[in-house]
Amino acid sequence: MMDVAQDLAESTSDVTSNPKYSKFTEIKYESISWESCYYCPCLKFACISDFVKHLRERHCTREGGSFVCRYGFNGVCPSLPLDGVSDRDYDAHVNKYHVNQNSRGMPPEWSVFSAAQNLPAVLNDPLRGKQVNLFTKKWGADFVEKSHIPPSTYLPEITYHDFEKYISKIGKRYRRHDHFTMQQNLHREGESLTCNGIVSTSPTHGVSLVAVPEIFLKESLNLQNASTFSQVFPGIMEKSNGEERRKTGRVVQEKLSHYLDIVEVKIAQQVSQKSASFFHAMTSQDAIMTEMQEAARRVQALRAALQMLHKSVVIDTFRVLCFAKRRQNFEDVLDKLCLMATVHKTQPMLQLLLGTQDYVAALDLIGTTQEILMQELNGVHCFKHLPMQLVEMEKLIDKMLTSEFVKYVTGDLNRPLSDMLKETDSTCAEEDKLVCIVMGLLRKKNFSFVDTYKEEAINSIRAIIKQQIIEFISTSEREICLTGTGEEAQDLSIAEWISLLDKLTVALLVILERVQAVTYIMGQTTAAAGGSNHGNQSIAENNEKAVNLIDSEAFLTEADRACVDQKLSELMDVVCQYCHRRCANLVAPQSLEKATATVEELCHLSSLVEEFSEACEDICGIAAVPLKMTLKDQAIKFANRFHSERKHKLGLLLDAERWRKVDIPNEFQKLIDFIEENDISELTVKRSSTSFLSGATSYWHYEDATEMPPASPLLLVESVPYTLVGTALLLVQMLCEYCRYGQLLPIVAGYLSRNVVDLLRTFNSRSCQLVIGIGAVSVAGLKKITSANLALLSRALDLILWLLPKIKAHFESLDSTSVAGYEIVENDYRGHIKELENKISTIVYELVALQLNSWDARPPIPSQSFRQISRHLVSLHKAIAPILPEKQMQTIYSIVHRNFKDKLREKLLQLGIVKNGGPQQGVVTSELTFYMETLRTLKALPVEELDDDILENIWEFNSCQ
After folding, report:
1. Which end of the chain has less neighbouring CB within 10 Å, N or C?
2. Residue 847 belongs to a domain
């Protein structure tokens, strides 16, 4: 271990070579021994066995049956095998290596000063770069050049002046503490000298109670106890000889006398110290006796004065008080008798109040009487049965209130509906009676009357619905059986259902207004019972809903009032929701699913639902969600049927389409003009707009007839002519129908908008299959797909693209969340148009390429190939010029012209013709001149492309090749 320490010391840096730290290391070596643990410096050991026990407990681990010593750096002992030894060998190892060798010194603890240079860190230092003399330098402290480390700017320099304030503050306290400690030490030395007999200034100075045994100073000294007796008289019973016992007794007596003298001396010493106090007490005793005699004399005089005052004043005064008390008792007895007479008249008064329906006053009288019997007349024998009678009377009033309330509610709700024409001031009959009953129920805290009214209202609504259905069916000529709930057996038509719903909503609104009126009166009564003036103020402001309330004190707490208000609010919600559900059940039976509803019927049904929902919302403040959902389901069914029919119709029209242009009916032109000038949503507002759709449809029924309306070969859209096929016209009509139905049925506007997207996608995909995919050859019987067919489809797509933003804006105004797929449809249509243009150019290019493949640069000029190319260009122009606009046609011809130049360059390269001024170049120039004259005659290309640059472009490209 010492060798290892020396090697570490030699390999340290220049920091460890400092003599300051070397001295510290030597001191630490000398201080280590078995008395302390090197790794647990806070522990000290008195013997070697404690040190060995500590090493076994803290620095040893047991692995199976072996012991592994951990007393070393990083928990590894360098003198013991890693696999461990037995228990006996471990003790020998500890005694040899850690007990005996420990006195020589352990290797120093690792610190920052023990660190040496790390060879990988030095070699990989990026700041030093490549070192030339790396392998020629000697390893050690001088391996790395020394660098001066400047002092830190963040650490201030500490001097003696920084501690002057602290030293001046603590110095005075320290000197005072040192002086006090010195005095205490001198005092202790004087006491110790006195106890040793060195100083003795008085006979009693050396006397101390320490010489007296402790047993004599205890309060529990009992000589009857054997142990105590043996301690007081030690060995006296062990002597067998009488003379010895007497000697021992005398010795004990002398000790006890000595102890007694010590105690007497201590007592005398204490008395002498307190002698001044004793003399002072004896001196003041005479003065105290004189003061006590004077006090006794004054007490005797005071008692005589009090006795004379009692005889002359107190006796007469108490007699007057007794007479006053007796008079008060007589008056109390008279009041009790009057109170008993009043209580005796309680039952007749209750009958009188119940006869006038003043239930609140009757209940107040019962409560007041019960309170008087419990407090004022408690124990009166003649009234012992009255409390039970009052309790029974209170129960009877409660039953009367409940039955009267049910009777009133039943009569009010089941009044004939024709009575509404006679009700002027209020829709509630006998308001005063209702106020009396509700006030009594509130006084009894019987809040279940709200639930009772709710049940009665629901039963009344159920009866009204059944009655209305029976009355409606009685007027029908068909035989219809009813179900148990009063609903018909699903045999009515939709028109009959709508008529029934119209009458039923009117009847239900009458019932709801009655319920609202009764609920309003109950709410105002509750507010008055709770002591709120808000109800009275609102009544004064609105004379139409005036309620005559009973003048009484507030008896409802705030919590009770809130509970009743919540029940009343829930009452209106439940009743309205029940009406909505029953109406929804009428709108959505199975018969409506089988029937076919027209849009007019759905609009009528929608108006009925909206009016009923708005009226219910005005009454109770909630919307008719179930009824609206049922209406939406019916509208969605209509929209699904409408969309499936239109989609099927569009498929049939596309399959039968011959892709030829048709004349545009005059009514259809008016329809497009109307959409151009106005918003598409006004098709449902303008009465004449319906004739647009009907007129446009009638054209297809008048085909080949003499009465066919005048038509035009072109459709003008914003002064732009359109040549169209018949399917495109019918598709526009279908789209207008979608917009019209979306305006009439806004509840399914979003659904119709998505159907429009689906219809447009169907048209786009199916037309692409029929025209570009040549499906029309097999489906419609066409011989081939011509450029005119492609151009007609392109114009149809252009017309849809013009109409698409208007349709999108229309449906976005109805439902902003239903226009998600319009951008995709627009992109698909534009891509389809681009594909049609490429298809037309491809057809012409194939014909041109076929002619160029057989062309050779030789007379005659123009050659037969270029003559055929010109004929193809002229034929293309005749086919698409009446259909496509000029700009689109120029785009197609630009593509054809570019493809022609590319193909001609390939042909020239194949023939090996170059720009050398020879005969072949002249032939090519003549051919191109003829070709360009044809294009100039057709005016198919833009003006900037009709010059003679083609003569130079071809040769330049050829030379580059």
Report:
1. C
2. no
Amino acid at 827: N
Q: How far apart are CA 940 and CA 876, in angstroms?
A: 10
Residues in contact with 681: Cβ distance below 8 Å, sequence separation at least 6, in sequence order: 739, 743, 810, 813
Whether residue 6 lies inside any domain: the answer is: no
The per-residue pLDDT for range 577-594, each reduced to its tens digit, is 888 778 777 765 544 555
The answer, yes or no, to whether residue 935 has pLDDT greater than 60, is yes
451: containing domain:
431-533+551-620
First to last CA, the chain: 89
pLDDT at 127: 65
DSSP notation for 579-642: HHHHHHHHHSSHHHHHS---HHHHHHHHHHHHHHHHHHHHHHS---HHHHHHHHHHHHHHHHHH
Alpha helices, DSSP H, located in 95-163: 119-123
Average pLDDT of the residues in 213-236: 80
- Residue 43 phi/psi, 5-degree rounding, is -100, 140
Closest to 893 measured CA to CA, from 906, 904, 907, 879:
879
Instruction: Establish if 938 belongs to a structural domain.
Output: yes
* pLDDT at res. 12: 38
3-state secondary structure string across 330-350: HHHHHHHHHHHHHHHCHHHHH
Judge if 350 and 448 occupy the same domain.
no
Name 716's Cβ contacts closer than 8 Å, sequence gap at least 6.
Answer: 669, 672, 722
Lowest mean pLDDT among 575-579, 619-623, 763-767: 619-623
How far apart CA 218 and CA 477 sit, in angstroms, is 127
Q: How does pLDDT run across 16-71, given as a tens digit for each residue?
A: 334 333 333 333 334 445 778 878 877 888 888 888 888 888 888 887 778 888 88
Whether the pLDDT of residue 5 is over 50: the answer is: no
Please, are residues 904 and 950 in contact by the beta-carbon 8 Å criterion?
no
Q: Which residue has the higher pLDDT, 684 or 499?
A: 499
Are residues 771 and 867 located together in one domain of the fold?
no
Does residue 110 sit within a domain? no
